[in-house]
What does this fold into?
Amino acid sequence: MTQPWIRKREIVLIAVLAAAALTAAIFFALPKQHSGVTVRIEQAGKLVQTFDPAVDAVYHIEGSCGGLDVEVKNGQWHVINEQCPNHICAEMGWRTAEDVIPVTCMPNEIVIYVGERE
Ligand SMILES: [Zn+2]
It folds into this structure.
C-alpha cells in the first residue's frame, strides 16, 4: 500500500540517464576546431603515441597481434599495414578530428581516438 511512486532503483536509473545526457550535451556544445587537436593511441590500455593530425607522418604501433601503422595525411589518419585477422581497423578508413568513434583494432588491443582539443 505504501509503495512510493518511484522506486529507488528507478531514481538511480533516471539519475544515470540524466548524467549521460548532460555529458553528451556538454560534449556536443564544445566548439569544434580543426587546429590544436591531439590524437592519442593506446595499446592494451596504455598511451603509447600521440600525434597532431596537422603533421603528415606514419607511426608504427606495436600490438598484441603484430601491430599496425597509422598514416597521417592532410589532417586525417587511417590504419595501414595492419597485422590482424579481421582488418576492421583498416576498413574504418580515414578519420578526422570530427569523428567521435575511435579506430579500434581489437586483436592488437589498439585504440586511436581524439584526445584533446584546444
Ligand atoms: Zn586490426
